[in-house]
UniProtKB/TrEMBL annotation:
Organism of origin: Alicyclobacillus ferrooxydans
Annotated ABC transporter domain residues: 5-231
Presence of keyword ATP-binding: yes
Domain of life: Bacteria
Protein name from the UniProt record: Amino acid ABC transporter ATP-binding protein
Keyword set, alphabetical order: ATP-binding, Nucleotide-binding, Transport
Entry-linked CDD domains: ABC_Mj1267_LivG_branched
SUPFAM superfamilies reported for this sequence: P-loop containing nucleoside triphosphate hydrolases
Gene Ontology molecular function: ATP binding; ATP hydrolysis activity
Length: 234
């Protein structure tokens, strides 16, 4: 199968500073890619460009046969890319049900899974999102993304704030989505989570890719060790 997502030399700068600087990679349908690297290396900015939060200053992004790098975020969402946020972006004054209903109302694709059942949210549907703990808000953020039936799901530090049991459960769920054909990019500091999800990671530093391969090989790479891992990958 060919590339479903083709990112070619994308750049994003803030003033004169390049947060992402000539990043290229491809992703197949149903594939999971880990995007890792030190703080400030450009991972979230990459996700922000792919989801249309920022327009790229250079380069192209092709998704499912369409060039999307100049599209606004709502159009990108409509064609099947959706995401979670490092700090979940649910509506705090709405209930969990209302939050999911808003996403369902805007969905252009049938969800692959029922987000409520899949993420086991039945017990908190009447709670206001603002009263949820971090793990619950992250799960709700994911539910809202899944309600849109994404073909490409971008998850930004989903495991941060989850306990080991919740992390394991999240791993199983993301693997299930990938088996359903959903491509997933996982931005993550918790490398054991990434390791459980995929053999393919890109290590970023200063806006550029410095390594592509599996985490075990990354741990043996001198540059990755120098800037990021300190010799301890998984
Ligand atoms: N809106 C913005 N305005 C100015 N600088 C920004 C903006 N967003 C990100 N940056 C800068 O771009 C660089 C990359 O940030 P980014 O959040 O993409 O890194 P990251 O790899 O996701 O980091 P972390 O792992 O800490 O989340 C950082 O130096 C950051 O300060």
């Amino acid at each position: 199968m060919g590339a479903f997502l083709k990112v070619d030399q994308i750049s994003k700068r803030f003033g004169g500073f390049y947060a992402v600087n000539g990043l290229s990679f491809e992703l197949k349908q149903g594939e999971i890619l880990g995007l890792v690297g030190p703080n400030g290396s450009g991972k979230t900015t990459c996700i922000n460009v792919l989801s249309g939060i920022y327009a790229a200053d250079g380069g192209t992004v092709e998704f499912d046969g369409k060039m999307i790098h100049t599209m606004p975020s709502y159009k990108i969402s409509n064609i099947g890319i959706n995401r979670t946020y490092q700090i979940p972006k649910c509506f705090h004054s709405l209930t969990v049900k209302e939050n999911i209903d808003v996403a369902l109302a805007h969905a252009k694709h049938k969800p692959q899974v029922d987000p409520v059942e899949f993420l086991e949210l039945q017990g908190i549907m009447g709670r206001n999102a603002g009263t949820l703990n971090t793990a619950q808000q992250k799960t709700l953020d994911l539910a809202r993304a899944l309600a849109t039936g994404p073909k490409l799901l971008l998850v930004d530090e989903l495991a941060a704030g989850l306990n080991p049991e919740e992390t394991e459960s999240m791993t199983t769920k993301l693997l299930h989505l990938s088996e359903q054909g959903v491509s997933i990019i996982v931005v993550e500091h918790l490398l054991s989570f990434v390791h459980a999800l995929t053999k393919r990671v890109i290590v970023m530093n200063a806006g550029k890719q410095i390594f592509e391969g599996d985490l075990e090989s990354a741990s043996k790479d001198p540059l990755v060790n120098q800037v990021y891992l300190g010799g301890d990958a998984v």
